Amino acid sequence: MAAAPKAKTDAGNADAAADGKKKKKKLLLIIGLAVALIAISIGGTIVALKFLAPAPPAGEAAEEEQAESTLAPALYYEMTPNFTINFNVNGRQRYLQAAITLLYRDPLLEELLKLHMPAIRNGLVMLLSAKNFEELQTNEGKETLREEALEIIRSQLQKEQEALVTSGKSEEVSPSNVEQVLFTNFVMQ
């Protein structure tokens, strides 16, 4: 008699195992379908974006490709010595020391920078000394200073190039200019 209940238990275990295998197959099928649907959705989106995106006008695309292909490597001009400016803040002497490096791409621009460096440095010293010490301590203040310094350098170079053209020493104003002013050292105390 003991053998009969054991046979029932074995049959119950076999049915449970079969149900478990069916459930695993169903689960794997559902997961596989979900992954396939996601892959189809992503692929469809990529294809739709590629084919439905408006094509850039032919002239602009050619200009962009030409500009990218003719972009010269970056050159750097370190302005030495560093700029040291003193400030009077609430009766105390405060100092700013800034090392400035210029980024440009035209190798001929270096000659102009060297030639007109006294005028450029003068403009930058006047700009730095006119600034508020507290304002320069913020990131926004430093970014504003960088933009204003770039404008001063560009305007000074433009003015000097135009003077060379009017005096007859140069044929035309060079379109190249300084791209960025970089603070490689900026110490305030």
Descriptive report:
The protein has 189 residues and is an alpha+beta fold. The protein has six helices and three strands; from the N terminus they run ααββααααβ. Strands 1-2-3 form a three-stranded antiparallel sheet, covered by helices on one side. A hairpin with a 2-residue loop joins strand 1 (75-89) and strand 2.
- The gross shape turns out to be elongated
Strand content: 15-25%
pLDDT averaged residue by residue: 82
Q: Helix share of residues?
A: 55-70%
Kindly state the number of beta strands.
3
Rg, rounded, reads 35 Å
Give the N-to-C terminal Cα separation. 98 Å
Counting helices, strands and paired strands, the structural category is: alpha+beta
Assembly type of the chains comes to single chain
**Count of helix runs:** 6
| N-to-C series of helices and strands | HHEEHHHHE
Strand arrangement across the biggest beta sheet: 1-2-3
Features:
elongated, single chain, 3-stranded antiparallel beta sheet, alpha+beta, 189 residues
Write the layout of secondary structure elements.
Blueprint: H1 3-52, H2 58-69, E1 75-89, E2 92-104, H3 109-115, H4 117-130, H5 133-136, H6 139-167, E3 180-188
Antiparallel strand pairs: 1-2, 2-3
